């Protein structure tokens, strides 16, 4: 069969689709031609098919760099459900699991490997990847490699090193939004040769953008109720700036007769999974969330996206608003704000980019919180809860988050916001002690016996376990199994660490004295200026009352829309007769 027939065959066999959409065909054709490709596709544009389809048409491994562990795990799960062998390499894996994964890779057992950027410069990974036939390198969320972009992540700079190890294998860079400056930075950092740039049209003819100025918080709430009333029963996503506001707003909406769930990074992994699943099933139809929600969520029928206050930049706003109407049916993106919201935004540069003395003080408090002496900590991971730290040391949580990112961008730490750590278990008693115990009690004995038979190194190190699988094998209720494990832990037979989802700080160097902290002041000031510029562009967009909003967004991202959309608030106002 020819190439086009092969594409259609793969598409139908694994996904059940009859055709591609948007610029997917253009991207896949360029990838199959062996070109370096930068694809700029809006949220919901079907980015994953652009590399999954061509990768299945050729032999070898497709290496995918992705910044979010939850998104990697979701993608791997979807591929496995379709019978496609895939794996993910990230900080949540133990040493035994990583060694096994490397062995499986070298045996050619996988078609796709998703890897977090922080793993790219590890000696073990580089040694392993040299002996594998990698046919395509994919960089998801490619804007993270642009130093002056809105979400720069230094670990992305490791991609260039990996590409050299792979003899400059063809590369596909994917992002939902990139200004011309960020596009240029992506191409330079990835060392693209004669690149193909594929950019999907910004036009969304059935998505209406509205910005609504409110006098105060009461009017903002009433305006929100009005929009929810007009979209009653329809899938709705409301973005709020903080965890506290998401919980408060969800409670308020539920009390007013608009049942709503809430989502933020502070929830436990199981909670986040549960509320996401419920919202996908429209039970409830309304989700109030921070920006942590939405990545990888495939829900085409969202009819309303509301920003309950401004974002920091147009990139975030555009991506989040674009989650409305992915099914190409009529949908609305609404931004509500008050004068107090604008004042808060204007205060952000000073809060998020404080004087160096404040950063030194923060670094000292961080060391105190982690009980980390000077000179120690290099290459160690520490669990870190922003809310707990902020409460103990009286810091603004927003400022904590920003300083962590700036320490990261200066090469001192890596801050991992969502690290899912699976359940781990080690048998700490001797084999003789276990054997003696096994004779005495039935259910715990069965559990210990199962663990010894199925986990080879469980006496030597903590191994990853899945409680659901063990419970199923032993005909136990999962809650009952957990109770048994906690009992064995308390009795001193095992060390049991249940699954958890905690942010992690990875120290890249030994802890320095705060007074001699090495910090790139010039780059810091430049990042602050870029932040101020992006914020200014956002505020201009919000306060603009005459220009077509999609045309303004397109211009910001270096594109042109030939004619006004006709359905945004400004276009409607222009055509409404004055009375």
Provide the fold topology.
Layout lengths: L2 H13 L8 H9 L4 E4 L8 H8 L4 E5 L3 H13 L4 E4 L5 H12 L5 E4 L7 H7 L4 E6 L18 H8 L5 E5 L4 H10 L6 E4 L7 E7 L3 H14 L5 E4 L3 H13 L4 E4 L5 H12 L5 E4 L14 E5 L5 H8 L9 E7 L1 H8 L1 H5 L3 H15 L10 E3 L2 H8 L3 H13 L3 E9 L2 E4 L3 H8 L3 H13 L8 E2 L2 H7 L4 H14 L2 E4 L2 E8 L13 H23 L5 H8 L12 H7 L4
Parallel strand pairs: 1-6, 1-7, 2-4, 2-5, 3-4, 5-6, 8-13, 9-11, 9-12, 10-11, 12-13
Antiparallel strand pairs: 14-19, 15-19, 16-17, 16-18
Helix pairs in contact: 2-3, 20-21
Assign the CATH class of the largest domain. Answer: Alpha Beta
Strand residues, percent: 15-25%
Shape annotation:
globular
Report strand order across the widest sheet.
Answer: 3-4-2-5-6-1-7
**What is the second-level CATH architecture of the largest domain?**
3-Layer(aba) Sandwich
How many beta-strand segments?
A: 19
The biggest beta sheet is recorded as: 7 strands, parallel
Q: How many domains would you count in the coordinates?
A: 4
| Radius of gyration computed on alpha carbons | 25 Å
Mean pLDDT: 91
How far is the N terminus from the C terminus?
Answer: 65 Å
Helical/strand content category: alpha/beta
CATH topology of the largest domain: Rossmann fold
CATH homologous superfamily annotation of the largest domain: P-loop containing nucleotide triphosphate hydrolases
Low-confidence stretches: none
Number of helices: 24
Helix content: 40-55%
GO molecular function: 3'-5' DNA helicase activity; ATP binding; DNA binding; four-way junction helicase activity; hydrolase activity; metal ion binding
Pfam family, one: RecQ_Zn_bind
InterPro entries: DEAD/DEAH_box_helicase_dom, DNA_helicase_ATP-dep_RecQ, Helicase_ATP-bd, Helicase_C-like, P-loop_NTPase, RecQ_Zn-bd, WH-like_DNA-bd_sf
GO cellular component, one term: bacterial nucleoid
């Amino acid at each position: 069969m020819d190439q086009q027939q092969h594409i259609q065959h793969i598409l139908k066999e694994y996904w059940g689709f009859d055709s591609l959409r948007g610029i997917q065909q253009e991207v896949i054709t360029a990838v199959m031609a062996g070109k370096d490709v930068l694809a700029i596709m809006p949220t919901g544009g079907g980015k994953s098919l652009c590399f999954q389809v061509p990768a299945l048409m050729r032999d070898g491994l497709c290496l995918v760099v992705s910044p979010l562990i939850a998104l990697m795990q979701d993608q791997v799960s979807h591929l496995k459900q379709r019978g496609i062998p895939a794996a993910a390499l990230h900080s949540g894996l133990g040493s035994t699991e990583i060694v096994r994964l490397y062995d499986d890779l070298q045996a050619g057992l996988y078609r796709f490997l998703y890897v977090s950027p922080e793993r790219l410069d590890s000696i073990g990974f580089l040694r392993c990847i040299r002996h594998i036939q990698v046919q395509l390198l994919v960089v998801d969320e490619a804007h993270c490699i642009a130093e002056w972009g809105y979400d720069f992540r230094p670990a992305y700079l490791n991609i260039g090193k990996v590409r050299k190890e792979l003899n400059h294998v063809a590369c596909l860079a994917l992002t939902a939004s990139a200004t011309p400056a960020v596009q240029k930075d992506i191409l330079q950092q990835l060392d693209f040769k004669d690149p193909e740039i594929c950019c999907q049209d910004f036009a969304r003819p059935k998505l209406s953008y509205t910005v609504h100025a409110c006098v105060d918080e009461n009017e903002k709430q009433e305006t929100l109720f009005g929009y929810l009333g007009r979209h009653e029963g329809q899938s709705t996503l409301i973005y709020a700036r903080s965890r506290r506001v998401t919980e408060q707003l969800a409670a308020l909406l539920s009390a007013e007769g608009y049942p709503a769930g809430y989502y933020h990074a502070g929830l436990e992994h199981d909670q986040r999974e549960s509320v996401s699943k419920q919202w996908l099933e429209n039970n409830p139809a309304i989700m109030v969330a921070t920006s942590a929600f939405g990545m990888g969520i495939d829900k085409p029928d969202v009819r309303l996206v509301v920003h309950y206050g401004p974002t920091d930049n147009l990139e975030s706003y555009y991506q989040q608003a674009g989650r409305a109407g992915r099914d190409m049916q009529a949908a609305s993106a609404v931004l509500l704000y008050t004068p107090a919201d604008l004042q808060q935004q204007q205060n952000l540069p000073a809060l998020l980019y404080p004087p160096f003395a404040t950063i030194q003080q923060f670094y000292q408090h961080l060391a105190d919180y982690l009980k980390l002496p000077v000179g120690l900590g290099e290459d160690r991971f520490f669990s870190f809860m922003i809310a707990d730290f902020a409460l103990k040391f009286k810091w603004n949580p927003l400022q904590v988050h920003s300083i962590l990112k700036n320490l990261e961008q200066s090469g001192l730490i890596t801050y991992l916001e969502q690290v899912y750590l699976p359940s781990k278990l080690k048998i700490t008693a001797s084999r003789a002690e276990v054997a003696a115990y096994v004779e005495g009690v039935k259910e715990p004995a069965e559990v210990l016996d199962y663990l010894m038979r199925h986990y080879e190194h469980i006496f030597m190190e903590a191994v990853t376990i899945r409680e659901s699988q063990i419970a199923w094998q032993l005909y136990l209720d999962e809650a009952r199994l957990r109770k048994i494990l906690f009992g064995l832990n308390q009795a001193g037979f095992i060390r049991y660490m249940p699954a958890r989802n905690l942010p992690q700080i990875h120290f890249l160097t030994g802890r320095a004295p705060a007074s001699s902290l090495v910090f790139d002041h010039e780059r810091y000031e430049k990042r602050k200026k870029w932040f101020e510029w992006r914020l200014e562009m956002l505020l201009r967009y919000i306060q603009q009352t005459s220009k077509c909003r999609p045309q303004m967004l397109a211009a910001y991202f270096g594109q042109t829309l030939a004619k006004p959309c006709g359905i945004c608030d400004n276009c409607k106002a222009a055509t409404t007769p004055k009375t």
